[in-house]
Design goal:
Strand content: 5-15%
Number of helices: 16
Helix content: 40-55%
Largest sheet: 6 strands, parallel
Distance between the termini: 11 Å
Structural class: alpha/beta
Oligomer: single chain
Low-confidence stretches: none
């Protein structure tokens, strides 16, 4: 029986859970259903220390506070000594799947230093091979750098030296890693493998019967500026809401049912402003999310992991965003737009196109999922200790 440590972020918006869920699917495909999976929360990196150790207390302090302490704990001369105090990390493989870790200013961020050096390196210290999977970049679309700063380049070189292998999920990450001499295979985000798990819900008789009536609903995931932030790119939130509201009206005029899915309480409030007469779902568990997805024909989303989870069950989406994370869905062949570049006419045309090609897209996306799953299984088995 293999023992796997899974390093992920599962306590933010529910979309983060889909990466961990996809990694669990890959692990069971690679090592069998009896694989023993232990979860580590990346926002609580000091759980690698024993209960009662003083560093565990820092996990309870909000990010951004105690910066001077965190800065010290992210320094090499500190964490290499502290690794001796960590609890036994007796695993055959560790897999990290935390999202867009390739960002500007990483070298100066105590939290990122702790995550990619102190936390990840502890597994290496104990002889546990670590695969850093599905790394993405996070840069505003109007200011994508040619290369990282010298400080960040040195930081990421050090980070990659502490892991056994990495994979990336979009082309900007491939390009930027290449500038520091790191060749990383490009594989669709590991969250697409969650489709294997969600398919069980989608194939339930009630869901199949409802989709048979009119093909299913159009799922809309709405954020105020088409993303968590506009990265100071001057996205007009009022204009964006009006655009989405008009697209929803157009789809309803076409006879399509439209419902909203929300990843946070704030998004749920926005949904009520956007379309107060439409159902607005705020699922708290993967099971609840799966029941919404099970009724979907097409998505129109700004959370990329809403689009990726839908893709995993063969449902295509129009994806919008303001940073290079949307390269993740573009690599999957999904229409992916900078919020500022999307018009009502383009959005409606793209959604209608996806609706008309739903059958072929279903087959294409499921095949993409299975190919990605196979490639991740190869990475897991190659990295794991014999």
């Amino acid at each position: 029986m293999k023992r796997l440590a899974l390093l992920s972020h599962r306590f933010g918006n529910i979309g983060h859970n889909f990466m961990a869920l996809g990694a669990e699917v890959v692990a069971r495909e690679a090592f069998g259903d009896d694989v023993e999976i232990t979860h580590f929360e990346q926002h609580h990196p000091f759980q690698i220390y024993p209960e009662g150790h003083w560093l565990r207390w820092i996990d309870k302090v909000r990010h951004g506070r105690l910066s001077w302490v965190r800065y010290h704990l992210g320094r090499e001369n500190a964490y290499r000594k502290l690794w001796e105090k960590t609890r036994p990390l007796e695993f055959d493989l560790a897999v990290a799947c935390g999202g867009p870790n390739l960002v500007s200013g990483a070298a100066a961020s105590p939290e990122i230093r702790i995550l990619l050096h102190h936390f990840n390196g502890a597994f290496r210290h104990h002889g546990v091979p670590l695969l850093d999977a599905a790394i993405g970049s996070g840069f505003p679309l109007e200011r994508i750098p040619e290369r990282l700063s010298p400080e960040d380049e040195n930081f990421y070189r050090a980070a990659t030296s502490l892991v056994s292998a990495i994979t990336v999920r979009e082309s900007e990450a491939v390009r930027l890693y290449a500038t520091i001499g790191v060749q990383a295979p490009l594989i669709p985000c590991i969250a697409i493998a969650s489709g294997r798990w969600f398919e069980r819900i989608r194939n339930e008789p009630d869901a199949v019967a409802e989709r048979a009536v009119d093909g299913g609903i159009v799922i809309v995931n709405f954020q105020a500026k088409g993303s968590n932030t506009d990265w100071n790119q001057r996205v007009d939130p009022a204009a964006w809401m009006e655009l989405v509201r008009c697209v929803i009206a157009d789809l309803r005029a076409d006879g399509r049912r439209v419902e909203l899915v929300c990843h946070s309480a704030y998004e749920h409030r926005l949904a009520k402003q956007l379309a107060p007469d439409l159902p607005a779902h705020f699922p708290k568990t993967e099971e609840e999310y799966g029941k919404v997805m099970a009724r979907a024909a097409v998505g129109f989303v700004s959370r990329i992991h809403a689009g990726i989870a839908l893709a995993g069950v063969g449902v295509p989406s129009l994806v919008v965003g303001n940073d290079t994370r949307i390269g993740t869905t573009a690599e999957m062949g999904l229409p992916s737009y900078f919020t500022k570049h999307l018009s009502r006419e383009i959005a409606l045309a793209e959604i209608r196109k996806l609706l008309s090609s739903a059958d072929s897209e279903r087959d294409r996306l499921r095949a993409l999922r299975e190919d990605a799953l196979t490639r991740y299984v190869e990475q897991f088995t190659r990295c794991a200790r014999a």
